[in-house]
Design a protein that fits this description.
The chain has about 240 residues and is of the alpha+beta class. It contains four helices and twelve strands.
Length: about 240
């Protein structure tokens, strides 16, 4: 009797601990990307560590060119410069753009991602596939540097358990304030946008997507609060010098 009772207690405890550990692992897998982003950002604030765009980048053609590019996308003559180095002379971490063909860098929050062009936000399979690669440019929005609305998003998912994973790149958008810089690379040219507005809106509000402007405007959208689909966080920025 005692032996059977011991086995029963052992099995109950085993499956209880197994369930707890499995649940913890699943939670880490689910929230790991955004937890990592949040923790690293807070550590950077404590230590005073800053992230800065590297002064040289390798283009998609494998060429090394200077990134001292003029505001608004003007491109200087390529210069043959050696290497990157992982840390700047000032001690700041250098960001190497994931893509200069079409990519985004936000130094303040250490965001660095490929942009997938012309993704229909109304077709689930299209935006889910795009968000696995980076962030999405909404179909119908303008190209970098052009008058109008360049709309980028990273909040939509095919299932609730993927929200945090696909939202990790824009997870810290809430930290951006007026005057912060958002850098977009397009066809190996650089476009600097300066934040001028941050808004929380209803999930059903598509006006920020349909808006058209007579100046180059960049609109960034993600979910709010992070990890939910309750509302949308919208950050807008204008092309530097416009």
């Amino acid at each position: 009797m005692a032996s059977k009772r011991f086995k029963k207690i052992f099995l109950i405890r085993f499956f209880t601990y197994f369930s707890i550990i499995t649940g913890f692992i699943i939670m880490l897998a689910q929230f790991g990307p955004v937890l990592s982003v949040e923790i690293n950002y807070r550590l950077d604030q404590i230590t005073g560590k800053k992230h800065q765009l590297a002064q040289t980048v390798i283009t998609s053609q494998g060429q090394i060119q200077s990134e001292d590019i003029l505001e608004g996308g003007a491109n200087p003559e390529p210069q043959a410069l050696e290497g990157f180095g992982d840390v700047a002379a000032s001690g700041e971490d250098l960001i190497k753009p994931v893509s200069t063909e079409f990519g985004l860098v936000i130094e303040k929050i250490n965001a660095n991602a490929k942009i997938v062009p012309q993704v229909d936000p109304g077709i689930e399979k299209d935006y889910v596939a795009a968000l696995k690669e980076g962030i999405a440019q909404a179909k119908g929005s303008t190209e970098p540097g052009e008058d109008g609305n360049l709309f980028l998003f990273s909040h939509s998912t095919d299932a609730p358990w993927n929200i945090t994973r696909y939202n990790a790149i824009f997870y810290l958008l809430r930290e951006l304030e007026s005057g912060d810089r958002v850098i977009v690379f397009y066809k190996n040219r650089r476009f600097d946008y300066i934040v001028f507005d941050k808004t929380i809106t209803e999930a059903s509000d598509i006006s920020f997507y349909t808006n058209r402007y007579d100046k180059p405007v960049l609109t960034l959208q993600t979910c709010d609060p992070p990890g939910t689909v309750l509302k949308r966080l919208i950050v807008r920025a204008k092309l530097a010098g416009s």
